[in-house]
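Lines hold sequence, tokenised fold; shown next:
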Amino acid sequence: MPVGNAFATANFARLFVMERAKFRIEVANAFTSEELQSSTVVLVGGPENTWSSFLTETLRFHIASQAGADSKETVWIEDRKNPGRRDWSFSTPSPNSGDIVDFAILGRLKDTRSGQWRVIASGLNDVGTSVASRTLSDANYMREITKHLPPGWASKSFEVVISVKVANGKVGYPQLVAYEIW
């Protein structure tokens, strides 16, 4: 399990314990589509989580990737309204600073067939996934992001793209980049 996914899972588990909510933790490939339909599900992880990829593949924002000639994979968040855009991609540390910028998708959508909610915290890298889960599980972080959303968002399905910078080893606060509400 990637480190960011472990931190993300811990963030959600802490929230569920504080709220006294029943929950179960499963590895993505260990549960079936029938289980996915039967309850509210929180999906953690980026491109390595097939269920996150499956649920976001038809949404406005989704994680895309492409292998380069040098066998390195480029990963980015694609915007269906502007599919050629690639500026929401993971940037590797610069040689002198070690600073990075990661991006993540936060989402909550209601499954139209089952009526169950799906929550997604999906970063391009560990930092993005961890901060995405922190944003969804921490009222202060969520308030900071949602103050930019239009009225009525709280009762609807939504997808949010955030960025987060790491400078000198310190993780910054998430910044709202884009959103879709329906």
